[in-house]
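Protocol step 6 of 9: fold each sequence in the batch and record its C-alpha cells directly after the sequence line. For illustration, a two-sequence batch is reproduced in full.

Sequence one:
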Amino acid sequence: MASEDVKQRGEAAAVSTFVNLAGEAKAATEGVKSPRHALLSISKSLAAGGIAGGVSRTAVAPLERLKILLQVQNPHSIKYNGTVQGLKYIWQTEGFRGLFKGNGTNCARIVPNSAVKFFSYEQASKGILWLYQQQTGNENAELTPVLRLGAGACAGIIAMSATYPMDMVRGRLTVQTAKSPQQYRGIYHALTTVLREEGFRALYKGWLPSVIGVVPYVGLNFAVYESLKDWLIKEKTFGLVQDNELGVTTRLACGAVAGTIGQTVAYPLDVVRRRMQMVGWKDASTVVTGDGKKVALEYTGMVDAFRKTVRYEGFRALYKGLVPNSVVPSISIAFVTYEVVKDLLGVEMRISD
C-alpha cells in the first residue's frame, strides 16, 4: 500500500515536472519566429522599401532628370538655365516623354537600392542598439541621433555598392541624345556595351565619391527624420500627434527637412560622381580654356575631379542642379510611402521601432 502511494506520488511529480517543462518551453519559443514567418516578414520589408523607392523617384522624375542635365551640361553651351526654364525646354524639345526619360532605368536601380537600404537600416539599427545597450548596461536605452546616423551610413554604403552599375548606366541613359557618341537601346544593352568596351571598372566610375557622399546623405536622412519624429511625438508639439502617431503631412515635412539637409551636405560629391561617370562619353567633360581652346577633361580620381571642376567653372558648379532637387525631396515621399506600405502589409516593425 505504501509502495503504491509512493508510486502514485512519483507519477504525479513526473507529470507535474513535464507540464512545467512544457510551459517553460512554450514561453521560451513564443517570442521566436518560425523561419517561414521570418522570411515572410523580410520579404514584406524589402517589398515596402522597393515600392517606396519606385513611387518617390517616379513622383520627382522630371526634376531628377533636370538635375542630372544641369550637373553635366557644358558650361560654355548652356541649354538648361534654372528649374522652370529647364523643364519647359525639355517639354518643348522632347515632349512629355522627355520629362520621364531614364525613369525606367532609374526605377530599375532605385527599387532594389531602396529595398536594400531600408532593410539594412532596420538590421543595422537593431545591431547597433544591442551593442549600445550591452555597453551601457541599460536594457531600456534608445537609439540616439548619432547612432541613427551610423545605422543610416551603413545602410547607404551597402545599398549604393550593391546597385552602383545601374546608377552609372542610368546617368548615361538620362543624358543621352541623338548626338551622343554611343546610343544605348536600354539597360541591358548599356550594361553589356560598357562592360565590353570600357571594362568592368567603368561600371564603378565615381564609386568612391558616391560612397563618401552616401555616408552623410543617407545617414543624415535617417537620423534627422527619425529624431525629428521622435521629438515631435515626445513633446506633442503643436497638436500634431494623434494616438501617438504623426499624420502623413507632418511626416512628409519631416522627410523634406531631412532630405534637404542631407543632400545639401553631400551634393558636391554627387556632382563629381556624375561627371566621373560621363568622362569620355559626353561633351559635358569638355571645357574652354582662357585662350579659347576646347579641352576634354580626364579625371585621375575624386580629388582631381573636384579640383578641375572648381578651377574651370568655379565653386558654384559643385551645386549645379541643387534647386530642382530641393523642390520636392524624394526621400520625404520614400519615408512616408515605406511606412504606409508596411502598415498595409502588416509588417510589425517600422524604422522607428
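Sequence two, same batch, same settings:
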Amino acid sequence: MNLNLSNRVALVTGATGQLGRVMARTLAQCGADIAIHYRNNEAQAIKLQDEIKAMGRRAAIVHGDITSLEAILGMKETIERELGSVNIVVANAVAQYKWTTILEQSPEDYESQFESCVMQSVYLAKAFAPTMIEAKWGRFIGINTECAMQNFPTQSAYVAGKRGMDGVYRILAKEIGEHQITVNQVAPGWTISDQDRENNTERSESYESTVPLKRRGTDQEIANAVAFLASDLASFITGAYIPVSGGNVMPAI
C-alpha cells in the first residue's frame, strides 16, 4: 500500500507560505504535478517550482487574489494550459492581520477573514468542481485551525472566518459527494515551520504543556495529513474536520 498521486494535478493556494511550501513539496513527492499559487512572494514561488521540477514533476506558477472569482478563473485557465485539469485543491491561503480583542478589532479584519476563508472556498468550488464532477474524482482540502475549537480571546476574526469555511466545506461535501469528490479540512495546531527553525523559536513550554503529546507539530506532519486526504487511501472520508494538533483539541461525538 502506498500513497500515490501520479497523474494528479494539485493546486495549493498560498503555496509560498510557511505551511504551503511543505504541502506543495509533499504532494509532488507523492507524484502530483503542482500549481503553485502566490500573492506576493514571487521569489519563493520560483524557488519552489525549481525544487518540484527537480523531483521530476511538472510545476506551474499562478499569481492572483484568491478573494476574486475572476482571478481564480484566470488561474484555472493558466493551470489547464500548462498542467491540465486540477484534481486536488488545497485551500491554504489566508489574509494576515494583527489579532486583538473584539472591541479593538477593525471591521476590515473581519471582512478580510470572511473573504479569504469563506469566499475563497466558494470561488475554488465554483472554478474547479465542475471538471471534477465530469471526471468523477476530486479532492477539496481546506486548511482550518485548532483555533476554531479553542475560541480564545483575540481570535475572533480568524475563528469567525474559519468557522464560516467549515460550514461551506461540510455542505459542499454533501452536495458533490455523489460524484466521488471528497471535501475535508485539516486543522493544524501551532506548527513549527522554517521560520521557527531560522529563529530558534521551535519550543514553547506554555503551549506544549497543554498538548497531550507534549510538543508542537511540524509543517511536515501537516503536509502528511493533506497528502493522505488527497490520496485514494482516504477515498471514503469526506466532510471531516481533522485536527493535527497532538490532541490539543478533540472534536466530540
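Proceed to step 7 once all outputs are recorded. Observation for sequence two: The radius of gyration is 17 Å.
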